[in-house]
Amino acid sequence: MTTKTDRHESPRLLLVDDEEAARYGMRRALSGFDYEIAEADGAEAARVAINEQPPDLLLLDVNLPGESGLDLLRSLKSGDVKDSPLVIIITAHGSERMAVEAIKSGAYDYLAKPFEVDELRLVVANALETMRLRRENQVLRQRIEQEGAGRGSLIGNSEAIKRVRALIEKVAETDATVLVRGESGTGKELVARELHERSAAGRRGAFVAVNCAALPSELIESELFGHEKGAFTGAAARRRGKFEQADGGTLFLDEIGDMSATVQAKLLRALEERRIERLGGNETIPVDVRVVSATHRALEQEIVTGNFRADLFYRLQVVTIDIAPLRERREDIPLLAETFVRRAAERYKLPPRDISASALRRLIEYRWPGNVRELRNTIERAVILAEGKNLEAGDLPTEITADTSGSKPANAEEQPVPLGAHELAVPFTADFRADRREFERRYITRCLDHSGGNVTRAAAILGMHRQSLQHKLRELGLTRRYMAVEPEDVPDIQR
Length: 495
What we know:
By secondary structure, the chain is α/β, with parallel strands linked by helices. It has four domains: 4-137, Response regulator (Rossmann fold); 159-323, P-loop containing nucleotide triphosphate hydrolases (Rossmann fold, 3-Layer(aba) Sandwich); 327-404, Helicase, Ruva Protein, domain 3 (Orthogonal Bundle), CATH 1.10.8; 408-495, Arc Repressor Mutant, subunit A (Orthogonal Bundle). The chain has 21 helices and 14 strands. Strand 3 (57-61), helix 4 (69-80) and strand 4 (86-91) form a beta-alpha-beta unit. The two termini are 46 Å apart.
């Protein structure tokens, strides 16, 4: 099947507003971009346009003659239109309640009149980027299903995941030791299992995993190398260690950075000689094991502080595979989320659900400190608790939706900020993420300057939690510039 993504067609926008001047203003603001733009002056005309040539994005005014924009939105999202477009609802100033209702009904985002040109451009670009990712992920999901990929296969099509796959392909058929590095929850064991499944060792022996951080230092030596009867108190019988269990296969040493110095020395010897000795024994046992280790620690720094042996480090990292955190490969989030939704529904025997555009947007924008593991657990919880046929933003935990909520805190200070378009204008570079980051930096800087550098007051102006704004300042590299001490009499902003 040929998709719009495959054909590289220009994104198609449909502007629906009964005011000709409003449509003209939006068309003019968006005319400098590679968009194909159509117009409709009401819901009926919009339906005709959608049926004739479905748009990618609908900019829909709420106040239309006859059928309202909100009614049209509900109709589109109810399944009356196949492959309905993303919808940005346009409301009158002060109609926040209407905007919230629109988001609940399936709108991607909303704009309140009057809005700035840069705000319109940014929201449109954001929506089209979401649409592009969804289409790419549909193609990827079909490809994965056609190839019969296992439940444990690496999911994603970002450049970071492509590099990991390429390294796995190159290394799998060798017996070289591999060091997998990445933050907690990025999928280091998944990479190790992929190496095992694709290797010659994977066709001969077992995959044996050991979490070095979960075992006391006095037990890990016995766990790895085994022991003879009577080797220590409680050793009532001979026991084969993980090296012997993994003979002919793969031994995965997770959190290798937590291993004691004594065990490090014995591990180095085992790797170099390919032989082990059980605790309390004299017999030298040959082992044919491919060792894959993993850590979230910076082992180079651990070497400097004396916590890790340099010779073992160099022996372990014959090949190093680095896994990027999820926040650096956000383009993988839609496909990961859809996969986890499907798996959770199957596991708990629940009806299949789709992810709404608003929920997907929040999943993409969240920073995921727990990485893929946190995303999987979040999706599983949402699938279990969701009441509607789709997974909505309201089904997600508040820590995910709080940073992107458009509603203003109840006790937010009403301090209008004079923001001129010339102050916020961002040169168009065709790099959506870079342009969005620059726009955010200019907007937040202007609000902070207006509040005298007071983060709490700026957060109130922006309609954000103070903690969320501080997080954004760190993300944008503005923390050094705005380090004002918060006065004790200014309360935290609560939603």
